[in-house]
Amino acid sequence: MSLLQAFFAIIRRDLILALRRRSEIVNPLLFFILVITLFPLGIGAQPLLLKAIAPGIIWVSALLAALLSLDSLFRSDFDDGSLEQMLLSVHPASVLVLGKIIAHWLVTGLPLLIIAPLLAVFLGLPNHAVGILLLTLLLGTPVLSLIGAIGVALTVGLRRGGMILSLLVLPLYVPVLIFAGNAVEMAGAGLPVHAQISILIAILLIALVLAPWPTAAALKMSIN
Questions:
Q1: pTM of the entire structure?
Q2: According to its UniProt entry, what is the function of this protein (predicted)?
Q3: N- to C-terminal Cα distance for the chain?
Q4: Which of 54, 85, 129, 170 could cross-link to 187 by cystine, CB 3.0-4.6 Å?
């Protein structure tokens, strides 16, 4: 099997397993929807306030939903031994790890991207800002999976690594949250957002190139 075939086989395998365990898809999505819908109930009938804080609400909810789903990225493979077999493969571990991260995003990040426009309208976000919201989610949520994979790899060998995982990855999520939320806010005000989008693209490219290497190294340390 060539490297490219192994890469796509990893993605296909994880997608099939996710479809068999539908909770991995449904739980983060339901959490995302519930958190957003609870804000109007807590704040009350204040459309102007909801409209002003809608970008922050959506992005914080997406961040927490991504964090909720991170532990499943390598956990089942670690428990059944298939993770060790993957790392012993003749193919570069970083490439195979990237395949698992992409599959994780397709299962958890893509559904958030699909449902986000409806929730944005629910919060009163202007129509001309919804497109920028989708663009920031498209650029930002893969970064959440890429950065989160490093934290998961460091804690996968721990029995209760959830709290440590949160402490590790939440500070690293802050730049994405700041620039993505600010881009949607500026778009809602009719201001240009080229700088924020360019920064998000740069963060995504850097994470895409660099994150698989420390993730693979951390997995090898966790297994040994």
A1: 0.89
A2: Required for the export of heme to the periplasm for the biogenesis of c-type cytochromes.
A3: 26
A4: 129
